[in-house]
Amino acid sequence: MSRLYLIRHGQAGPRDDYDRLSTLGELQSRLLGRYLVSHGVHFAAAYVGRLSRQRRTAEAVRDEYERAGRAFPDLIEDHLWDEFDLGDVYRKLAGPLSENDPRFKQEFDAMMAAIENGDGEIHRNHNYCDIAIVRAWTTSRYPYSGESWFDFRARIAKPRQALTRFGSRENLAVFTSATPIGIWMGDALSLTEPEIWRLAGATYNSGISTFRVAEDDLRVFIFNSLPHLGDASMWSFR
User: Are 191 and 185 in contact (CB under 8 A)?
Assistant: First the structure.
């Protein structure tokens, strides 16, 4: 059974420019790299999704290994580790949801106004709109032409078979996002969908979760650890 490090990307940008790292996200990622180097963690392979925030996190960790004169594997890009497209879900489902949920319409309009007015707090907090739009997507409440929740879950499960080819003492790194980590936690612990979403929502930026991976067994050892961020002011969820 290989040891898998599932690493969430560092803090991202604002809602209207989310797929990049913020200044804090860059720092979180560098500190993560320094921590892994200082603890002698060697990776046999490193995978990363296609999203900019995922890749930049991986590159910052790699840079710290190179700066310390330590080997780090070439990054293997794999779209299977991409987060679902929340922006697309909003674009396609906010309209019909607004027509049927007065509270959603009111809070969605307020959220968009806050973004336009430069209210920084709106970018860092989950709100009723996020919960309602994701629930509409996961339950197929309205027709949606993008990737369904069912297809997304199936995609996130696909890499498991390929990861079993590594040796029992080899460490693997995967730089991904909150929901894939929540799904893997759910698979390891046989959790329900609401529990998966609660875990995804509680996943820290640059947090480390570790698993043991085999064809017929998936074990979780660590969830959402931040040993590289000693100062709580650097902890973030979004």
Answer: yes
Tell me the helices (H) and strands (E) count for the chain, helix number first.
9, 6
DSSP single-letter state for residue 127: -
- pTM of the predicted protein model: 0.95
Please, what is the end-to-end C-alpha distance for the chain in angstroms?
Answer: 32
Using the structure block, give the residue that is written with the tokens 């979004």.
238
Residue 117 is given by DSSP the state T
Beta bridge partners of 4: 172, 211
Asked whether the beta carbons of 217 and 1 are under 8 A apart, the reply is yes
Return d(Cα 226, Cα 237) in angstroms, integer. Answer: 12
Query: What DSSP assignment string belongs to 184-231?
Result: HHHHHHT--HHHHHHHHHTPPTT-EEEEEEETTEEEEEEEEE-TT--S
Are 221 and 28 within 8 A, CB to CB? Answer: no
DSSP string, 42-79: -EEEEEE-SSHHHHHHHHHHHHHHHHTT---PPEEE-G
Per-10-residue mean pLDDT of the chain, 238 residues long, equals 92 93 98 98 97 98 98 97 97 97 96 86 87 96 96 96 85 98 96 95 97 87 97 94
Which is nearest to 181 in space by CA: 163, 164, 205, 162?
A: 205
